[in-house]
Amino acid sequence: MSSSTTTALSRQPLAQVLRNLTDPRDRRGVRHDLPTVLSLAVTGVLAGCRSLTAIWEHTTDLTAADLETLGLQVGQALPSESTIRRVLHDLDPTDLDTHVRSWFCTRTGTIEGRTVIAVDGKTMRGARTGKDPAPHLLAALDQATGTVLAQARVADKSNEIPALRELLKPLDLDGVVVSADAMHTQTDTAEWITQQGGHYVFTVKGNQKTLRRMLKKLPWKDVPSTSWGDVSHGRRVRRTVKAVEAPTWVDFPGAAQVVQVRRTRTTKDRRSAGKNGGGSAKRTTVEVVYLVCSLPMGQAQPEQVAAWVRGHWKIENRLHWVRDVVFDEDHHQLRTANGPENMATLRNLAISLIRLFHGPSACIASATRSLSRQPKRAIKLLTQPTT
Question: Residue 206 contacts by C-beta under 8 Å, 6 or more apart in sequence?
């Protein structure tokens, strides 16, 4: 993408970008243009709507001025719930993701001086049918802003490993750090990322048994550490990180440093509580994981790598948990054709818009409740460019 195109996109509101999508419907009988239908759907999702019926009901509460801002002509009837459903059913998800991605990629942030992209997958359990498995979607999250840069469906008879390259291929990875879980600790993936000018932080687990066994034998007791703790969902977790330059015998493409992460997790054990006087018992577990990073320690200190790793682990809470709990995605029953994938993209889009305008730490549940009460603010997110 040229710099002039990037500059133009950075000045456009997202509603304008939606006008560049290809309408899959036959022109005959079309009463509402594609950008208007999508803008109404996005506004509903921003308000926390969990179903297509809820989205349609939300549009009926909008004023004539609100509807006109979103593209509906004065006196024009609202699109029905079935119209919204057909649009999401037929719309090419790759086309939608391409245009949304191009817009959000002009608004990435940095962590410790670098753009860091976390890649992780999620299965849409509610979209499972009798014949076909539930769609599995792979997402790329900008750790700094909390926005979703790209999403792609994993082929039913494949897995996330080849899908990662397809997901990231349209992105400019020059200087970018890609974080992913142990499934993606593959030599082909590491080579591909470094060939694109990017860097990686991968977890080493059972799929690389020999490498993990050798990393475990390193003299970690003599290595200085950095630690941090956090509390989430009733669990207290403390992480201790150590890093060393990768030894010459580490047979992994581009590996420049090795990191050990010790996670100590403390939770309340309700089963044991009350047995000895009714006090709340605690249960502590310790897990040690190893990572490989393609950036040498001179360019990425352990504290930086720790921040990237911490950001990757948060993708579960910042994206998957939000889609499941706030938007009830696993119980949504839009199952056929492109509907599930497009609906997931709209949820990603809503989450990303809220974080761009209200900050990466914005509470999505609180924001959607507020936007449902003040629909003009939701429309503003869609129709005004970020600054």
Answer: 182, 212
Q: Which of 261, 318, 365, 263 is nearest to 122 (CA)?
A: 318
Rounded CA gap, 78 and 155, in Å? 36
Task: Return the residue matching tokens 């550490």.
Answer: 225
Kindly list the strands in the beta sheet with 199-204, ordered across the sheet, starting from the edge strand earlier in the chain: 147-153, 136-142, 116-123, 177-180, 199-204, 282-293, 257-268, 235-245, 225-232
Cα separation, 216 vs 254, in Å, equals 19
Own/partner pairs for 204-210, CB < 8 Å, 24+ apart?
204/289, 204/290, 204/291, 204/292, 205/289, 206/182, 207/182, 207/183, 208/182, 208/252
pLDDT value of residue 75: 87
Task: Take residue 106 and report the two structure tokens written for it.
Answer: 């002009």
pLDDT at 233 exceeding the cut of 60: yes
**CA distances from residue 75 to 84, 233, 363 in whole angstroms, order as listed:** 19, 49, 37
225 φ, ψ (degrees, to nearest 5): -130, 165
The pLDDT assigned to 275 comes to: 55
Alpha-carbon gap, residue 183 to 311, rounded angstroms? 18
Name every residue whose Cβ is closer than 8 Å to that of residue 26 and which is 6 or more positions away in sequence: none
- Return phi, psi of residue 290, to 5°: -120, 145
Packing angle, helices 339-358 and 364-373, rounded to 10: 90
Residues in Cβ contact with 244 at an 8 Å cutoff, skipping those fewer than 6 apart: 218, 223, 257, 258, 297
Tokens for 77, please give them.
């009837």
Give the residues across from 111 on adjacent strands: 114
Q: Which residues on adjacent β-strands are paired with residue 107?
A: none
Length in residues, the chain: 387
Determine contact, residues 139/151, Cβ cutoff 8 Å: yes
- Pairing outcome for strands 199-204 and 136-142: unpaired
- 147-153 and 136-142 strand pairing: antiparallel
pLDDT at res. 207: 83
Distance CA 309, CA 230 (A): 14
Q: What is the pTM of this model?
A: 0.88
